Amino acid sequence: MALVVRWRYLLLLCSRRKRNAMIQTDHLGEFKAPVLLCGGVYGNLQALDALLAEAARRSIPESRIIHTGDVIAYCGDPEACAGRLRGAGILAIKGNVEEQIGRNALDCACGFDEGSMCQTMAVEWYAFANSEVSGDTRQWCARLPDHLTFAMSGRTFKVVHGSVDQVNRFMFASLEDDVFQSELAIAGTDAVIAGHTGLPFTRHFGRQIWHNTGALGLPANDGTPRVWFSVLTPMIHGVRFEHVALDYDHRGAAQAMRRNNLSPAYADTLESGVWPSLDILPSAEKQRVGQKIETRSTVWINAPRTAA
Length: 308
Ligand SMILES: [Fe+2]
Known about the structure:
This protein is an alpha/beta fold. The chain contains ten helices and twelve strands.
């Protein structure tokens, strides 16, 4: 009996922990000019258009914009967003949604708990998105790499969606240090750029960094409709990480959801800035719901490597 229970537990773990089987990594070389990082467009065309306008204002071309996955999800324009990202030549990796769309799967494999509100609502938005995407978009999703690597100011970076070896793992800022440190060891780079959780943060671990851009398609649960992206800027003695909040036509995005009869809960979120469910959040992140996040930047100073 104990053996049966253990097997069931293992099967449950396997279904939740969607590990990358064969990881495809594309190498981008070195960037000597600012790079714009974003993730989680989530089918929010108004936010994506605002981001592209902001990139142009900052003189950052599309060839220096990197998307960390999930261009398709909750919002009203999945096909238009995927087409815009593809057409602009933005550098992108697979999120769990691209992975599932690319293989004609019937669910988003987001990593939500069975029976949770997030899981229930994911059934609805994924079915809508899956019915909207074209064959070209589906093939594009399937061809995207899982990871990207690049260098800047003598430091190496790996771009992932969830964790380094699991596309749908939620790596929240409040997790223990050793969780991040073991992921950074697997990455084999000085920094990891991640997405999937929807909340922006940067954490330092000695000479290494874990950075999450937050999401472009949904607000950061801070009581404002702003969405988030990041800019990395090479400096003589290091790299500047800048978390940037973006104002955009959030009412237009909410209307697009309502026009398509998508969940009113997520449409309301675009306007209120608060998520409809806190299912996936650790207690530390739950305590900060509704507290406005300030834009901030941090400079990562190059330190000499310790001799082995
Ligand atoms: Fe995701």
